[in-house]
Amino acid sequence: MAWQQGPFRFMNFREWVPDRCRFWVYILFLAIFQFSNGMYFTAMAQMQGEHSLTMNDVKMMSHAVLIGLTLYFPLAFRLKFCFTNRTSLMVAAMGLAVCNLIVPHITHPFLLVVVGFIAGLFRLYGTFECLSNILPKITPTYNYPVFLSFVFFVVLGVIHVFDAISMHIIYYDDWQHLHTLAIGLLLMVILLAGVLMRPFRPMQKMPLLGVDWLGMLLWAIFILSAIFVVQYGYQLDWFHSLYIRVAMGACCIALGFNIARMTYIRHPFIEAAAFRVNNLTYLLVAFLCLSILLASKNTLQNTYTGAVLHWDALNLSRLKWFEFLGSLLGALFSCHALIRLKWGHKLVTFFGFSMILVYVVSMYFLVSPMTNIEKFYLPLVCCGVGQLCIFIALTVYVQAMAPFKNYFQVLCILGFVRTGIGSPIGDTLYQHGITGVMNRYLAANFNTSDAMVFTIQELYGYTFVFGIGVLILLAASRFKRNVKKPIPTLRLLYALVKRKAKA
């Protein structure tokens, strides 16, 4: 069938499906994939108690899910060109359903990490298939600030709504019912995709020949081993432990093999050219600093609300709605600033870090045993705004700098920090800080409650000082511009598809 003329029309559906419903079917699929995580961060405490796991075990599992998401990027277009959209959606939903089915019955941490990694791959597989198809509907002019604002709002913002819903389910019911609900929703995706969609292929099938699966495995071993060292180092006494030494050795060996393979493999999983993109080092440092600042919310705030305020899951779920509001405002502001106000990527990034510092300094003055929940609302909105602004601005900048061939490989490299090693580094720093500062206050004859309050407040103060340093370095940095006009990645994809369909 020739490519449609006039307004964009989804061609993957059967003819009897109304045009006005097709976009919303994709939105429904997208929402289900965001809810179906394989492992649910809000249920980690229950998994920890029922399966006799440590907190580091459950954090390692959550990091494995995120690394699975990250390592999908270099495969994105190869899988899209190899399989039809209907097949991809059904396979992704089936894979996630299987992961949700077996996770409640596994107790070994290593197996849970492996299943979490696979679940992350399938989750982004389905998410990318939905997002890549609705791109022309969201922005017919292929405006990347608009599209990426929508993407990060869905990936980072809407997830807060599902966290709040899952907290209510866990509070009133068993955590395993989350997996049952996810399986039911994923089966609905399979049923709807099979009934409403057809195996439409707008261009010739591209086989998966030449994909460096071994390279993908080696990069997974490298980053997961590095995360293991950082996450378990304090618990296992660092290099005094055989496990830490083995993990560090595996990390170095895997990295060495990957570097060597770049020189003699024709199509490595991540090419050497991806590491030579302008300002890549600055971007990695920026995401590392962002991860450390956001770890204050994940570690210090959670410690404060749990150990000092003793809030239950229902109170914590209320906070998720204001994080969602912050994400929405951040996406809208980033889109407006980059398109209407013509702000540069550096200025939007600077504004984002400033908003996160507003959260940090607000929490510094709020830490008290008498703080009520309403005082958390505005700081969390500011934190959500800042996080979305930074992610959108820097990702739009990457799209402008990276060539089409290496764009998704660069996203994978950035993911090693922003969804990989960055968060464990921040958690470890704050855990060390809590232990050291807490012992100092206890040695000065403070009671345990007061010592915890002063410890958290002092660490928020150190975080603010660190954030000021980040702003100074960001202001002094220079965002290089590419001398060549960048080729919009997905716009080129759809141009090729359109040309092939017409032929």
What characteristics describe this protein?
single chain, 503 residues, mainly alpha, Growth Hormone, Chain: A, 2 domains, 17 helices, 74% helix, 0% strand, globular, disordered N terminus, disordered C terminus
- Spell out the helices and strands N to C: HHHHHHHHHHHHHHHHH
Number of domains: 2
How many helices in DSSP terms? 17
The major beta sheet can be summarized as:
none
What is the fourth-level CATH superfamily of the largest domain? MFS general substrate transporter like domains
Low-pLDDT residue intervals, each spanning 5 or more residues: 1-6, 482-490, 496-503
Helix content: over 70%
Number of strands: 0
Report the structural category. Answer: mainly alpha
| Beta-strand content bin | under 5%
Based on CA inertia axes, which overall geometry fits? globular
Mean pLDDT: 84
CATH class of the largest domain: Mainly Alpha
CATH topology of the largest domain: Growth Hormone, Chain: A
CATH architecture of the largest domain: Up-down Bundle
The radius of gyration computed from the alpha-carbon positions, rounded to a whole number of angstroms, is: 23 Å
Distance between the termini: 10 Å
Question: Could you write a compact summary of the structure shown?
Answer:
The protein is mostly helical. The chain has 17 helices and no strands.
What report would you give on this structure?
- By secondary structure, the protein is mostly helical.
- It folds into two domains: 1-209, Growth Hormone, Chain: A (Up-down Bundle), CATH 1.20.1250; 270-503, Up-down Bundle (Growth Hormone, Chain: A), CATH 1.20.1250.
- The N and C termini lie close together (10 Å).
- Helix 5 (85-102) packs antiparallel against helix 8.
- The protein is built from 17 helices and no strands.
